[in-house]
């Protein structure tokens, strides 16, 4: 606690103060929502209308505009959750604890969407709803990891204790995910290689790529909105006895 | 000189404020007696001192510094609601484990056992002991390991008159040797020549 | 007293306790044998079929047996207050906890190795793959105890932690299942399995080093 450089400490301290955070995010919210709507409309328009049909998969490939960003988000959110959990554990910042647990249901939803859309995509491609393909399997295990986090949080009555449990579990999970991912990949090397991240020679046409990146960005904003909304609610719930909550609620009634 | 301080401590449990802005200072030879109704936060305060719980505000200091685990733990001993002895092990085995986990103290195992009137029980399984004997066994732990601070949660539970007098004598002796004790108790304790501070949490 | 003295005292204590409670050793072992016996009854006793799925069956059963035995790792210490005393020891909790996990493995993991040859015969596994099966069990079951310890440490304070424990622990068991199961399968087919064994070995050493940290943190959390 005494090792952090001062400006960093001050920033954390300011953002970690619940009333400040609550007021700040309230002003931020309309901007986030507008950006999200804009990006989603642009991304869907580009992806579903402007982008050409794939010469092999026809129009069915267009589900990647949901599937791929969801899959990216599922992993991204787990990492955010672990980082927030670690911050909460080390510096005992309540807000970080709340961010960690508020991320879990959003991450689980994205994982679920990635699984469902992957299976929908698989039907025309492989002729069956479910294939034990490496990435779908990893995604399924990731869903279990998320459910474990949510289940553990729910099972522990004292929410501060529960937050610490979640942080420890998320950190263990984040160390394990690469191992799990590698082992599943190794177990099954059936799927086509990653198509988008090959930077030297993109194997996806630019008119398909741009909407995909737009959608990825829009999903990031959606996560941010959902996360902030959940965090604010949880914050009110946990701080219900604090003076600032009382003042705010009574103030808005008058 | 050993010194235990609590500064501005507060504890909230299940939405209920148990205590706040609690400040105390304990030095060698003193006893801190926590009083209060059931549920007033006595045990919670002891567990905060042990580091099992975090205070919702405030700080514990040991010898003037914020508690540093291994250094603090080497100088304290705790006897809680639970005896912390294994039923399937003998009296001797239990004490040997306690000794292995801590640092060698003032008394040998044999001396400690006779001090708590359990001499000759070495090879008896703990499950064969009565509740009062078990209690005395867990208090024998305090004697065989080296420590300055005793944290005792209701040490007189299930002890008879003789047992209570015994523990009171041990506590007096510990304080006379420069030790300090934080305890909770329903019983009125009778200690002579010991500086007893009282905090009422209700 | 020295750290190594405390470490070995904890191991000795838990071994003595297990010997005095015997069912702790016997139950997971019986479960392991029983589950494997159920498979031929459930899917038919065609030798080819059994032979093909034997590695998977043995490893899935080992996983379940390990999980079933986890609860005994910290439960009684939590219930009788010994865990508080362990956490209050000036010795580092991580080392003491590692001692407990090792003792737990000796009591619940090692016996699986002893009955495994018998079960391999039940399922008609080729005899040349037996060595690899034992080697994977030797390397893999300690990992199950180690990773499982994180799960129990997180749930030991809960009255009904059983269901949630499997949800926490089983996904983390996947890599061990994959590499160990695959090694045995390859060995049965007469193929080299160096890669799998190397990976399992590194997973074991990584877990030995890393696991005590979250376990100690989780126990501190659970005791509050």
Overview of the structural elements:
The complex is a heterotrimer of chains A (254), B (202) and C (224). With 254 residues, chain A is an all-alpha fold. Chain A has 8 helices and no strands. Chain A has one domain (27-253). Chain A has helices at 6-15, 18-50, 64-91, 94-126, 134-155, 159-187, 206-238, 243-253. The radius of gyration of chain A is 21 Å and the shape is globular. Residues 190-202 of chain A have low confidence and may be disordered. In chain B, 31% of the residues lie in helices and 28% in strands. In chain B, helix 3 (91-101) packs parallel to helix 5. Chain C has 11 helices and no strands. In chain C, helix 2 (23-43) runs parallel beside helix 7, helix 3 runs antiparallel to helix 7 and helix 8 packs parallel to helix 10 (194-210). The longest helix of chain C has 27 residues, at 162-188. The two termini of chain C are 27 Å apart. The chains are: A mainly alpha (254), B alpha/beta (202), C mainly alpha (224). Chains in contact: A-B, A-C, B-C. The B-C interface holds B 47, 50, 52-54, 70-71, 73-74, 76-78, 80-89, 93, 96-104, 141 and C 1, 5-6, 9-10, 13, 16-17, 20-21, 76, 79-82, 84-92, 96, 220, 223-224.
Helix content of chain B: 25-40%
Q: Can you give the helix content of chain A as a percent range?
A: over 70%
Major sheet summary line of chain A:
none
DSSP summary, beta strand count of chain B: 9
Helix and strand element order of chain A: HHHHHHHH
- Beta fraction of the residues of chain B? 25-35%
């Amino acid at each position: 606690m005494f090792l952090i450089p001062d400006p960093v400490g001050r920033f954390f301290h300011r953002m970690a103060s619940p009333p400040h955070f609550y007021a700040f995010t309230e002003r931020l919210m309309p901007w986030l929502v507008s950006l999200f709507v804009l990006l989603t409309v642009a991304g869907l328009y580009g992806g579903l209308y402007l982008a050409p049909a794939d010469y092999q998969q026809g129009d069915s490939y267009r589900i990647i505009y949901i599937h791929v960003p969801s899959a990216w988000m599922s992993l991204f959110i787990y990492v955010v959750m672990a980082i927030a959990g670690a911050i909460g554990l080390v510096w005992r910042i309540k807000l970080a604890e709340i961010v960690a647990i508020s991320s879990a249901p959003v991450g689980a939803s994205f994982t679920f969407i990635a699984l469902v859309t992957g299976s929908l995509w698989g039907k025309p491609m492989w002729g069956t709803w479910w294939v034990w393909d490496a990435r779908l399997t990893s995604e399924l295990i990731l869903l279990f990891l998320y459910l474990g986090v949510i289940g553990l949080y729910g099972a522990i009555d004292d929410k501060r204790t529960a937050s610490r449990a979640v942080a420890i579990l998320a950190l263990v999970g984040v160390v394990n995910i690469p191992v799990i991912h590698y082992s599943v990949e190794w177990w099954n090397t059936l799927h086509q290689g990653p198509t988008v991240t090959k930077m030297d020679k993109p194997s996806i046409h630019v008119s398909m790529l741009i909407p995909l990146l737009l959608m990825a960005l829009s999903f990031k904003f959606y996560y941010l909105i959902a996360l902030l909304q959940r965090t604010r609610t949880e914050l009110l719930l946990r701080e219900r006895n604090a003076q600032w909550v009382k003042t705010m609620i009574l103030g808005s009634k008058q | 000189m050993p010194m235990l301080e609590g500064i501005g401590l507060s504890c909230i449990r299940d939405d209920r404020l148990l205590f706040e802005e609690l400040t105390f200072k304990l030095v060698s030879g003193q006893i801190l007696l926590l009083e209060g109704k059931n549920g007033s936060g006595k045990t919670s305060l002891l567990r905060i001192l042990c580091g099992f719980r975090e205070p919702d505000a405030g700080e514990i200091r040991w010898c003037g510094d914020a508690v540093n685990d291994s250094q603090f733990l080497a100088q304290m001993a705790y006897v809680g609601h639970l005896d912390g002895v294994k039923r399937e092990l003998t009296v001797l085995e239990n004490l040997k484990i306690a000794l292995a986990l801590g640092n060698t103290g003032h008394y040998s195992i044999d001396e400690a056992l006779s001090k708590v009137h359990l001499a000759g029980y070495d090879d008896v399984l703990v499950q064969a002991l009565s509740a009062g004997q078990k209690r005395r066994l867990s208090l024998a732990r305090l004697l065989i390991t080296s420590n300055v601070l005793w944290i005792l949660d209701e040490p007189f539970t299930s002890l008879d008159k003789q047992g209570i007098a015994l523990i009171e004598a041990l506590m007096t002796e510990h304080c006379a040797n420069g030790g300090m004790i934080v305890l909770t108790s329903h019983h009125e304790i009778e200690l002579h020549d010991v500086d007893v501070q009282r905090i009422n949490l209700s | 007293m020295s750290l190594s003295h405390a470490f070995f005292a904890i191991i000795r204590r838990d071994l003595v306790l297990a010997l005095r409670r015997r069912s702790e050793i016997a139950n997971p072992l019986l479960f392991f044998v029983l589950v494997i016996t159920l498979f031929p009854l459930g899917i038919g006793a065609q030798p080819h079929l059994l032979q093909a799925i034997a590695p998977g069956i043995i490893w899935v059963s080992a996983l379940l047996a390990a999980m079933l035995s986890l609860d005994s790792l910290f439960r009684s210490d939590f219930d009788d207050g010994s865990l508080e005393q362990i956490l209050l020891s000036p010795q580092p909790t991580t080392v003491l906890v590692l001692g407990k996990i090792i003792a737990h493995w000796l009591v619940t993991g090692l016996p699986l190795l002893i009955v495994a040859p018998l079960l391999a015969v039940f399922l008609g596994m080729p005899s040349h793959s037996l060595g690899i099966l034992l080697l994977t069990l030797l390397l893999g079951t300690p990992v199950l105890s180690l990773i499982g310890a994180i799960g129990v440490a997180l749930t030991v304070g809960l009255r009904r932690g059983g269901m949630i424990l499997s949800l926490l622990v089983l996904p983390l068991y996947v890599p061990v299942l994959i590499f160990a199961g695959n090694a045995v399968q390859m060995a049965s087919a007469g193929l080299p399995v160096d890669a799998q064994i190397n990976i399992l070995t590194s997973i074991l050493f990584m877990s030995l080093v890393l696991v005590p940290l979250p376990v100690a943190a989780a126990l501190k959390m659970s005791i509050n």
